[in-house]
Amino acid sequence: MKNITVIGVGYVGLVTGACFSDLGNRVIALDINEERIQNLAKGIMPIYEPGLAELVERNVRAGRLVFTTSYDEAIKDAEFVFIAVGTPEGVDGEADLQYVRMAAESVANVMDHPLIIINKSTVPVGTGDWVADIVRETQPSPVEFAVVSCPEFLREGSAIRDFMNPDRTVLGSEDTTAAERVAQLHLPLRAPIMVTDLRTAEMIKYASNAFLATRISFINEIANICEALGADVKEVARGMGYDKRIGHHFLEAGVGYGGSCFPKDVKALAHMAQVHGKHPQLLHAVMDINAYQRRHVLLKLHEHLDGLEGRTIALLGLAFKQDTDDMREAPSITIGDYLDEHGATVRGYDPAAMEWAKRAMPYLETAADPYELVKGADAVIVLTPWNEFKNLDMDRIKNAMRVPVMVDGRNLYDPAQMKAHGFTYSGIGRGD
Length: 432
Ligand code: NAD
Ligand code: UGA
What we know:
Number of domains: 2
Low-confidence stretches: none
Helix content: 40-55%
Radius of gyration: 23 Å
Bound molecules: nicotinamide-adenine-dinucleotide, uridine-5'-diphosphate-glucuronic acid
Strand order of the largest sheet: 3-2-1-4-5-6
Number of helices: 17
Mean pLDDT: 97
Number of strands: 14
CATH topology of the largest domain: Rossmann fold
């Protein structure tokens, strides 16, 4: 049983804290957002993540997981301190490190015994050294510490499963003893543990996200070529994926990647490269293709509708992906904004993200379910591939619409079946 402190109770911090406590450690999770901490004490989760509420509740009840806003309390008995605060997009695509800086300063201010400070936030290469400098300069009197980079690879929507069953644990540090102690913490996860220097670990995280984003943009480009040539990208991806060197993952064509990570991380990596005089052409192509995919969906809508003024367009799914309520960089926002600016009424439904969607899209009319969503609509655009959308009563959907146009930005449905139901249907790269 180790004493672990996690700073930041967002998607990564809360999952990290809950999982480490479930592995039998004593965890204190800290956030500066008082409302989040008060709610967590009452069992109210700040985010929608399958299985998280139960995991938190179990470990709080067992006394292994505690929430606080006090750095004094959080650091008093800590051996390991995970920094898991946000690193959003800043100016010119550079990662904004203000929250990491604040967290490092706050830890340094109160630490009175040796600590291992672990960067779990996704941070630009070199941040580990920078954090070490901040801690050293801020400490009221010198206390020993080590900085270890431990990037997180979990996905929203399957965060607990991903955390508990990682493909690998990457640890970067100049202090091998500290890295070894952090490795011990991760042994119960039974994944390969790779220890490297700080900068390499930080780079592994960016390179991994950029590679996954590249696969998505690659298949989106192939999808657009498929449309011109009459091939079906879903089958193309399946055929490619059987090649073990390629694999099936992250080859789903659609409206482009969104979320709190791929968009900002690809940009931040490109920014880092440019600052050092490099020309990251591939990364720029990845971003351009991704931005185009949003427009591609809108162009399809224009093909089927003569003008948007006065139309009602239904958005089926609003979150950036299924099984999350996260609206950060969700394609629905770009598409909704465009429709609103062009005089359409924008109506939306999402099983989890309605509250955040209304904040991100003030013009949004909301619906209680997919059937209410499409009532009198001139078109429906599928934007999030939630399971519960897969078996909708398509006759009911079609009959409720004023004009049965469907643009399927996630290739959720079979084009032939949708046409048989009487829809004017268009997927992404489906040979039409
Ligand atoms: P988030 O926005 O959901 O949560 C961040 C939390 O940190 C917030 O609750 C905020 O109040 C808190 N915070 C900010 N400054 C603080 C401070 N000084 N002290 C204490 N708490 C503070 O962020 P997230 O999505 O969990 O991402 C965190 C980091 O992990 C980012 O760097 C992100 O790139 C990376 N990451 C995210 C995911 C993901 O799926 N979301 C996966 C892997 C890595
Ligand atoms: C992604 C990575 O998968 C995680 O490994 C990483 O830890 C995380 O970013 C991060 O650094 O924050 P996440 O953004 O939660 O996780 O979700 P993904 O499942 O990767 O999806 C990202 C976006 O790509 C979504 O908009 C999704 O719909 C889209 N996507 C994904 C596609 O368009 N096609 C695909 O084949 C796969």
